[in-house]
Design goal:
With about 350 residues, the chain is α+β, with helices and mostly antiparallel strands. It is built from eleven helices and seven strands.
């Protein structure tokens, strides 16, 4: 009975430890303890080396908190990280392959040097033989020279093939680096680029403004017309924002949300750029590609704020998010600013 009691105590301690970790995870990310959030947190803390936990670590790098959208995206397919995480894995894989290729080149150079050394040694031996023997010397030299020519040609073929492979790997590496910084659907910059841009401006003391744009009633578009149409709407609005704010960072931040980073301009100038984009989107009459039937009005709302000197991204972003919420509450299809 004493042993059974000790086992139960250990079990209770383990349960409480997991419970505390789950609670700490939910508190850290300001998530409610509903079943979806709790199950997700439980999966992360009990399988810290799993793909979901790895995706969480990548997405929350730099102190970023998870949102419910992030949890739904990761929880829908627990075994597959988000595209951004997949791109990072691809990037790291290509780096490793390129490093192996460089090491292969080093080995190849050593091999060529060894073959050259052997060739010189063979020729030296042949020269010695020439001085000592009259009859079969010429034949022996021809044999050695012919063998070395074949070996040199084979080495040249290997060098050419290795050079082609290295060039292809470099090309893939450049593409992977670019993909790791872009949203795969819209082609816009992703969250990482936005955050790096803010950090760079902050370190340089450059004036910057942050805006969050969210498509109004986007769920209705997906529900009524399907996700394929919703994806086309996201691309279309992303193109408008990118065109109007071409000198600044336009990123897809997640779901139907876009984040804009304006550098070196005033709040009024930033607001004018977003306002032009908002009017362009609101005045456009979108139609279904398959039937040419009207899609209905598509609009977006936005919150805009300028970061104070030394202000961190979390603070400015939270303020812009609150302004976006006001724009939604006041009727949508508008921009709120401080």
């Amino acid at each position: 009975m004493r042993r059974a009691g000790a086992a139960m105590t250990l079990l209770d301690d383990k349960v409480m430890e997991i419970f505390d970790k789950v609670g700490a995870f939910l508190t850290e990310h300001r998530l409610g303890a509903d079943p979806v959030n709790y199950e997700f947190a439980y999966r992360v803390v009990t399988t810290p080396d799993g793909p979901v936990a790895a995706a969480v670590r990548a997405m929350t790098e730099g102190g970023i908190r998870l949102t419910r959208k992030d949890i739904v995206a990761l929880g829908g397919e627990a075994a597959r990280p988000e595209p951004e995480v997949q791109n990072r894995v691809l990037h790291d894989t290509l780096v490793a392959r390129t490093q192996l290729q460089v090491e292969s080149f080093a080995d190849l150079v050593k091999s060529v040097r060894a073959e050259t050394t052997d060739f010189g040694r063979d020729l030296l031996a042949s020269s010695e033989a020439i001085r000592q023997i009259d009859g079969s010397v010429a034949t022996e030299v021809v044999k050695i020279t012919g063998a070395m020519v074949d070996r040199v040609r084979a080495t040249e073929d290997r060098l050419e093939a290795a050079t082609r492979e290295a060039a292809e790997l470099r090309h893939q590496l450049e593409e992977a680096r670019d993909d790791a910084r872009r949203d795969p659907l819209t082609g816009l910059a992703n969250r990482r680029v936005f955050e790096e841009g803010f950090a760079t401006n902050l370190a340089s003391g450059i004036r910057q403004c942050v805006a969050i744009c969210d498509i109004d009633r986007f769920k209705l578009v997906n529900d009524n017309f399907g996700h394929a149409v919703g994806d086309r709407v996201l691309k279309a609005i992303g193109e408008v924002l990118s065109a109007q704010c071409r000198d600044h960072i336009v990123a897809r931040y997640g779901g139907e949300e876009f984040a804009l980073l304006f550098t070196g301009i005033s709040a009024d100038e930033a607001r004018a750029l977003i306002e032009e984009a908002r009017e362009t989107v609101a005045n456009k009459r979108y139609r279904l590609r398959e039937t040419d039937a009207p899609l209905g009005a598509v609009t977006f709302s936005a919150g805009l704020t300028c970061a104070a000197a030394g202000e961190q991204l979390d603070t400015a972003f939270e303020r812009a998010d609150q302004l976006l919420y006001q724009a939604k509450t006041n009727g949508r299809n508008q921009i709120m600013h401080d």
